[in-house]
Specification:
Blueprint: H1 2-23, E1 25-30, E2 35-40, E3 45-51, E4 56-60, E5 68-72, E6 77-82, E7 87-93, E8 98-103, E9 109-114, E10 119-124, E11 130-135, E12 139-146, E13 152-159, E14 162-167, E15 172-178, E16 183-188, E17 194-199, E18 204-209, E19 214-220, E20 225-230, E21 236-241, E22 246-251, E23 256-262, E24 267-272, E25 278-283, E26 288-293, E27 298-304, E28 309-314
Antiparallel strand pairs: 1-2, 1-28, 2-3, 4-5, 5-6, 6-7, 8-9, 9-10, 10-11, 12-13, 13-14, 14-15, 16-17, 17-18, 18-19, 20-21, 21-22, 22-23, 24-25, 25-26, 26-27
């Protein structure tokens, strides 16, 4: 029996891995089409489309949750979506013109940036109601990203030159850091010691030391840099350049560009596949999601989704 144990265990592990891959999904909000595209991560093909009748923007999936959380701009709502049934199960009223939504690291909280109200709404994922709002100094906030320990949030605003720092426990803004005109995407290193901000008007990536709360690096990567994401291992960050139709791969150790990868037009927000091997990018003017193979540093597929995809998230 011992002679056959290892092959059986390996076969079971391989079958489990294949099954997990087959079940992985990515979701893209198409604000121009009013739809949400459901993508099979194994085949990189759209397997269904959820019609919403609204203008979906930000989207998130939280730890230990099967729900999809989506912001809707025209009615200023957060939608709780069952992606399997393809239905909106619940609607939560937010501030005016919500944009990005992010989950806290433990999955208990959602933070939504409301550009029209200059605020961030915090919703508990179990109670599904706005528990509190924090007004920010920056005008037209777009992204509010939790730090890896869940204690802080950095907020970028499209009509500002700083990112605002929120203390979640104190429920108030406690500072700000000048980064340049029109900051947009934000991402933290896995250990939370650094944060990276895409500064669109200056076409820059900015690195922030979160202990000192000051800018420690600036790097030009392309025209109209708008999105940023850090790889799960923290070794690289990727930044979308809307004016160049590419995504820059940057080494976090030296903050230098490793590769500029050609993708769809006006790339925006991004998400890694669950295994971290592929990067999914909403390419707005192409009406598609661009798929980049991280190892080969190339776009391996462009998935048609719908008019003006805003963002993408995978689980």
């Amino acid at each position: 029996m011992k002679h056959f144990l290892l092959p059986i265990v390996v076969l079971v592990a391989q079958m489990t891995s294949v099954a997990a891959s087959a079940q992985s999904r990515a979701y893209a909000t198409n604000e121009g089409a009013g739809t949400i595209s459901v993508i099979d991560v194994a085949t990189d093909a759209v397997i269904s489309t959820i019609e919403t009748g609204g203008k979906p923007r930000g989207l998130a999936v939280c730890k230990s949750s099967k729900k999809l959380y989506v912001t809707e701009q025209t009615k200023s709502q957060l939608w709780v979506v069952d992606p399997v049934k393809g239905v909106i199960e619940q609607r939560v009223q937010l501030g005016e013109s919500p944009e990005a939504v992010y989950c806290s690291p433990n999955g208990d909280w959602l933070g939504v940036a409301n550009e029209g109200s200059n605020s961030v709404s915090f919703i508990h994922t179990q109670r599904l109601k706005v528990e509190f709002d924090i007004v920010v100094q920056g005008k037209n906030p777009e992204h509010g990203v939790f730090s890896p320990d869940g204690k802080l949030m950095l907020v970028s605003a499209e009509e500002a030159d700083q990112v605002d720092i929120l203390d979640i426990e104190k429920r108030k803004q406690v500072g700000s850091i000048k980064v340049g005109e029109r900051p947009r995407g934000i991402a933290f290193s896995p250990d939370g010691k650094k944060a990276y901000v895409a500064v669109e008007s200056a076409s820059l990536l900015v690195a922030i030391d979160m202990t000192e709360r000051k800018v420690v690096g600036k790097q030009a990567v392309g025209k109209r840099t708008s999105g940023v994401i850090v790889s799960p291992d923290g070794a690289f960050l990727f930044a979308t350049n809307g004016g160049d139709a590419n995504v820059s791969m940057v080494d976090t150790a030296n903050f230098k560009v490793v590769e500029n990868i050609a993708i769809g037009q006006r790339p925006w927000n991004m998400s890694f596949s669950p295994d971290g091997l592929k990067l999914y990018i909403a390419s707005g003017r192409s009406g598609s999601v661009s798929v980049v193979d991280v190892a080969s540093r190339k776009m391996v597929k462009e998935i048609p989704t719908g008019k003006l995809p805003w963002g993408v998230v995978a689980q």
